Amino acid sequence: MSSRPSPLDLVADVAAICVEHTPATVRATAVLQRIGEAIPLEAAALSTFDPVEERHLTVAEIGYSDPVLTYLNDGFVNDDPAFLTMRFRNPRPLRWCDIPNYRDMFSAHEVFIPGGFAEGSTTCLFTRDGRYTGALHLSSDSPLPISDSAVETLIALQRVIAPLMDAMRPPEGHSWTELLEDAAEAGLITADRRMVALPGLRRDRWLADDSPLTAELLARPEGPPSRFAWVSPAGRCHEVRTTRLATGVLVTLREAAAPYRLSPREVQVLTLVAAGLANPAIGLSLSLSPRTVATHVEHILAKLGCATRVAAASKAVAEGIVPLAVPTATPLLVRT
């Protein structure tokens, strides 16, 4: 004798769908279809929130007309008081019936009811670390709201679905907290090669628009390396890390000693050695005499355990100590 699937079965199935190795749109559509098997609805949509552009984008939808879908991603998420309450005050999913006189409010009266719906609910999605990533919208042509038990199931699904909608999703095996640990500044390189700020994170000094480091990072058509040491114009050594996310490349900057006990000046010299510059050119770039540059190179070779400049440069690039040079950007990287 078969039994009716439990809410736990729904949560388990959705969790399994979210981690499948298929495109996010395919998984999101499968999630909506599975929810529709358990909760009565005529339309459903999953949207992601882009924190850089501060806008919502539909990832998957079933049954909504274009005007209603456009409103869900614009007017509803920006102006609807019930939605704003969920996002910023109380994350519990809300049904029309939970809000006094909701049928007379703009969203229902002007958009949803003319769109053919008589009830609905929205669930804001939050990751375990509290970041808002998007929303799940459900709508029905029946005036009967989804049950209280269905609301409890949606609460359980909030953190299950949130990573799938996360435009700032970190790579597998990493957490957002880990990526930002001890970072003094952070920014995001967008697909159109801009460095933009992220909500709540500093980008006001070495990753600012007029910084030589920002120019160096944006000058790389293939994208910046995953990490390297960089010396600021103030003479301090920093570690630069980059991480590819769904919406761009995260850049973090933290003050840290260079590997192999390299001094800040030795990092600068090694960066130019890796760029293929000879000692006179390095001296000219750093305002050092060729003899002083030669002394720095000797110290670098000893610290890295290399016999030649070529070997030292190869090791430094391979181990992420200095970046592979982009000829037009190299002077910006080290000039003081």
From TrEMBL:
<keyword id="KW-0238">DNA-binding</keyword>
<dbReference type="GO" id="GO:0006355">
    <property type="term" value="P:regulation of DNA-templated transcription"/>
</dbReference>
<keyword id="KW-0805">Transcription regulation</keyword>
<dbReference type="InterPro" id="IPR016032">
    <property type="entry name" value="Sig_transdc_resp-reg_C-effctor"/>
</dbReference>
<dbReference type="GO" id="GO:0003677">
    <property type="term" value="F:DNA binding"/>
</dbReference>
<dbReference type="InterPro" id="IPR036388">
    <property type="entry name" value="WH-like_DNA-bd_sf"/>
</dbReference>
<dbReference type="InterPro" id="IPR000792">
    <property type="entry name" value="Tscrpt_reg_LuxR_C"/>
</dbReference>
<protein>
    <submittedName>
        <fullName>Putative transcriptional regulator</fullName>
    </submittedName>
</protein>
<keyword id="KW-0804">Transcription</keyword>
<dbReference type="Pfam" id="PF00196">
    <property type="entry name" value="GerE"/>
</dbReference>
